[in-house]
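Schema walk-through. Below, the input block comes first and the output block second. Nothing else is stored per chain. Lengths vary across the set, and this one has 327 residues.
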Amino acid sequence: MDTLPLDVNHPAVRDFLALTRLQVLTPLSLVINLATVLVCSIVVKPSLGGVSGHRPTAISPSTPVIGIYILALYVMQVGYCVLLVLATKPETKKTLIKGVGLSLVFSNFLMAIWAITWVMEWFLVATILQGVMLILLLYSNIALLVYHPPDPSRPFDTALIHAPLRFFFILPFSLLFPLCLFITLGFVHNPAVSPGSDPDFSGWHVWPTFGVVLGTNIVGLIVVLLRRDIVWTVAATWICISIWSLRPKPVPIYATVIIFTALHPLALIAAELYHRFHKRQPIALPDDEEHPGLYRHQGEQERTRRESERAPRERAPGEVSSGDIWS
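--- output ---
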């Protein structure tokens, strides 16, 4: 058979083929990502956490805490893969194909390659991989928010598409890309600690690192306030906890992540309260009897009654008063 009995240029056929491609490649990329990270974390020496421990920076995270974050990300992606197979609504399929597409597949492959370069201590390559992954995930999140925004009528789309993509994006945005960049630039130092003295953080380039930590957290705080984004709140708070859980840390960095650990949840609560009690105040209708609505009939009756009281009484035809007779 020379040609397929289908028109592959037809939009419906192309969407079907794109969805089928995603149903195959997305689980495959997730399995490769998960297997590579597990091998590099458990089998290889030095492991992912060991390399980070050998080159401490001002934002180096606690390995167990950030490991739980990555594990939660894998669980969310499993839900995304299930939705890929079970999706029936045209809007959901369009979101998967047009909104996410192959960006998540490429990001999983890049994450697996990054784990290899990290344990091999090829930090420049690792930084480039994290930068490319950050761009891919940023593109997907913008496409989802602009062209396929969350819809309350489709809660599974929000939970299994928007949430995993945003959770994945925040990891390189707030932690992995800055961490690789700082190690590549040499912002690394083993603080010399002597008995009875404070650690020396002079080699850690505290203030450039402080600017990056403050900037990323301010961006997250703005997103939380404007969008009441619970996913960003959880992810940003989690990353802040992972940073201050590993000590010692320079005071500006430690204080900043401690403050934003409290600010992100408080901002979400404040934004939600403002939305509920200020934006949704009931609109009071003006007390106008001419206002069209439920009270139009009552207003017309009241107006008719007042006009009848002011108007002089009219006599019936042929009625003669006693005064007219003698005038």
